[in-house]
């Protein structure tokens, strides 16, 4: 039977071979079987699922990076000649964990939690460490890396780390790890929003100190009201933070005092972040 | 909040036990009191008051026409006193109340019942304020992020000050 040439892309050699003439019976079976036994099929399936979950802007580089990070290379398969030192291994692990953590935005809760689990496992793997599990030192390193890569100012990062860091020798359980990761990423977004807010307040090239303080005080008031568990506090906060109330607060602040100095961006961000950090639960 | 007492007919406490009440001497510790409301139709039950006489546990079964306490028809109070020390127990001075004729709920939060009087921003003409809509949008997002972190608190503990049992008092006393 003549083989027809089809103008399809060579997706998977096995399926194409199946569509060809049936005279190739034995060869077809062994190709599919070979791929399955080598683990290629399941690995490709996992890779495609990851792409679908993350929906990156550039899927092909994403896939390339994904395979790179799987750490498949061993000396026997032509990878690095010598096994790398302990410190390098740890850096690699942290890098890999970071990559997993950045796959989904924290608001995509299920995907984010999955990625946190994978990152935790990646860091806890025994490898050449004496004891399996995540130690406090690696956890603290990871927190600092996330904040540094997110370009959060040091004055904001260190009070947060004081609250959520663990001591170097402590074993970090998964729940604490998850909370720490979530807090870091949410803080980075909070600082970004505070920055955008400063831009709005800074319209004439000078952010009036009275106006900035009034807005921060209103936010603090809305957060304080939330120490009770009623759902009505969301409505109450919403009305306090609506445009009318904020306009009134800003207006009153300008009338109250005569000073006209400006508040700098760093000071504004630090004050805003302290409102956030106050609501973070400390570890230990 | 006003309340109106509902006239009720309380059928006597019946001790539940196996066998004939008259011939078998026993104190089962379970009493049932049935309450009907023959004169009042189905009503919304607001409050039950009573004076307890050595009852330990109380269960209430309600026969009603709709969900919640709307349109209550009958009530059954099941009293339990498992201790043999209290052979006699009951509820005294049972009274039932429903909503008063007009009871505006006084539990409005202040933002609903006392809306801020409309104040015209005084300085609007003199000095331009930053756009309140944009400010509000950013501040609300910041509020939401903070609330999320507060709500997501983990209950896990690092166990920093947990001891692993080697400070047991018995072991210490051997030194």
From TrEMBL, chain A:
Can you supply a Gene Ontology BP term from the record?
A: vesicle localization
Drop me one GO molecular function for this one: microtubule binding
Output the CDD domains linked to this UniProt entry.
DD_TPGS1
InterPro entries in the record: DD_TPGS1, TPGS1, TPGS1_C
Q: Where is this region: Disordered?
A: 1-30
Residue ranges annotated for the Tubulin polyglutamylase complex subunit 1-like C-terminal domain, each copy included: 90-281
The UniProt entry's GO CC annotations, sorted and at most eight, read: centrosome; synapse
Highest taxon of source: Eukaryota
Indicate what this protein is called per its UniProt record: Tubulin polyglutamylase complex subunit 1
Q: Which organism is it from?
A: Vombatus ursinus
* Primary gene name: TPGS1
